[in-house]
């Protein structure tokens, strides 16, 4: 047991029939952090969140939540709230009545449950007495978050919380999550929105076909040997182009000259080579006016780490299909036969 961890998972496996949704997951989530979960469709994010919420039980492995081991006889560690897929709401009840019903189910006094406060936190005060039947996706997500807040969780688990939110709603929700983390609540959230994850999370876990392919601080994704594409705007594009072309470890993007009217230089480089190029430009008296990754480090890592695995998994499945499909075995045998 580690007191600093809100979640500690070791070797978690979960299958649905033949489908291996989680395949030996190890995960550490530090208390008071916002931890992002990202991965392609079907990677296992929702399954993992469901385990954290106690909605499902792992087939094997060890999962500790808020310091308590969970198991087949799931003991609610208390202090965990959130939703997967989408929050469950009663459509014929108003937003306020929905929260009151949830509070009553938990045995809380609905007058002191903090319903107005929760509605205000997520920006739904104006529609508190509207039936949720007419709520948009973004409003439902916000009400789901309000419902989770009522439980005053120490671990908040959210599946795509920014789904359907307009920019103001997103800002609101980001503000709530950041404040909660500041107060010590741990937040684990899944999202396909890299910009949301980068804005909110200190750490991310990237899943691919049920396995962890990266877990750690966001900063680690940009560091080291990983080569990213960067756009540079300088005071002297022609000289900057020549210097970049000669810089060790730096590759010019094929169409760099055509971009941004020839003003911008696009290079592929790991961080140390980029640093040396920037130092070289400055040394040559060329001012750097803008330097930004073309795709964010998280998005680049996501693509680099998940696409090969998805392709590998497809290839494996294809090989397995081929091996068990007599028609394919026959089809594959044909060229050999033809050559005989
Ligand atoms: N109840 C279930 N019954 C059968 N298979 C399931 C079930 N739940 C999940 N799966 C399968 O487990 C795998 C992981 O699904 P999961 O929903 O956890 O992925 P995800 O990363 O959340 O995907 P998405 O980004 O599309 O929501 C998928 O192959 C999915 O089809």
From TrEMBL:
InterPro entries (UniProt xref): AAA+_ATPase, ABC_transporter-like_ATP-bd, ABC_transporter-like_CS, P-loop_NTPase
UniProt name for this protein: ABC transporter ATP-binding protein
Record's keyword annotation contains Protein transport: no
Annotated Basic and acidic residues bias: 309-328
Polar residues bias: start-end ranges: 331-340
Keyword ATP-binding: yes
Organism per entry: Streptomyces achromogenes
Domain ABC transporter: 7-234
Family assignment from sequence similarity: Belongs to the ABC transporter superfamily.
MF-aspect GO terms: ATP binding
Swiss-Prot/TrEMBL keywords: ATP-binding, Nucleotide-binding, Transport
